[in-house]
Structure formats: structure tokens, C-alpha cells
Amino acid sequence: MEFRDADERKSWFCKNVLTNKLSLYRMAMSILHNEEDAKDAVSEAVSISYERLETLRNPKSFKSWIMRILINEAYKIYNRGKRSVQYEDYQDATYDMDEDNAAVWSAVEALNKDMRTIVMLFYFDGMKVKEIAEITGLSQSAIKTRLHRAREQLKTILTKEE
Q: What predicted TM-score, i.e. pTM, was given to this entire model?
């Protein structure tokens, strides 16, 4: 991407980060389950993406591009074993939800991390299967299969809670 000057670059980037900040935070929380680690992952992803902005070929792909960077950073933190939070602390950090939404969120949290990531991107962030495939590096058919399996697991989890 080309910009007239540094101010235009910064303005465009900030606007797009602000548009996607909730999605970024939600994804980081779904992987890390710790508010401070999630903030660190988002911060690092924003920093890296700003430094590498010239590698973004299509401005319309900004969300999937920055989400891929965020997921990589979140898994780096996760794999370092940096996260250490009690579930009660995590619950306090989640959004204010009514009882039904809290049950759905809890069910999503019960999925394994690979399925949870795909469910978050598809249902919470409204991304298309093709975009999720680009972000995760999986084929579109693998994404569809994981979504199907996740729906089945969610159905089982949610019917047990009733």
C-alpha cells in the first residue's frame, strides 16, 4: 500500500485498528483467558502490523491480516506458559451478558482452542470461510468441517446445561 505521507498512513492504520479493536480483544481473550495477556497480545499485534503495513497488499484484507498476526502473537504468549489466571478472575473480565449469552459464551469457551478460534472468527466477527482459511492457513473444507463439529459440540454442551 502506498500513502502520500506518514500522517495519512498513521490515520488510515488507526482508523482500521479502532474499527477492529473489539474483535482483536475478543480473539485474544478466547485464546489466552487473561486480560493482561490479551492486552499484551493485541498491543504486540498492532505494533507488528504497523511496522509491516507495507506488506498488506489489499486494504480490504486488513482485518484478516491483523487477526492472523494477533493469533500468532497470542499463541506465542500461550505457549510460553505466560498465562496464569484463575477462572473466577477471567469471568470478571468478560463482557456483561444476559444469562443466555453467558451460557453460549461458556459453551464456546469449552471448545478446544482450534475450534474456538474458528467459531469466534465465524460467528462473533462475521468472517467468511474463505477469510478464516486465509487467517488459519487451513483449507476451506477443513474450516467447514471444524465449524460443523463445533456446532455439534456446542449443541451437546448447551443441551446438557438445560
A: 0.67
- Pseudo-torsion of CA 53, 59, 63, 66, nearest 10°? -10
Place of cell 507495507: 54
C-beta of residue 41 within 8 angstroms of C-beta of residue 74: yes
Cα distance between the two ends of the chain: 51
What residues contact 133, with CB distance under 8 A and at least 6 apart? 139, 140, 142, 143
Helix ranges (H only) for the chain are 6-32, 35-51, 62-79, 87-93, 99-110, 113-119, 129-136, 140-161
Cα–Cα distances (Å) from 13 to 8, 20, 33, 38, in that order, read: 8, 11, 27, 20
Highest mean pLDDT among 84-93, 98-107, 127-136: 127-136
Q: Comparing C-alpha atoms, which of 106, 111, 116 is closest to residue 71? A: 116
Yes or no: say if 119 and 150 are a contact pair by the CB < 8 Å rule: yes
**Nine-digit cell at 109?**
469457551
Q: What are phi and psi of 24, to 5 degrees?
A: -65, -50
Share of the chain above pLDDT 90, in %: 48
Q: What's the gap between Cα 71 and its chain centre?
A: 6
Cell of 57: 497488499
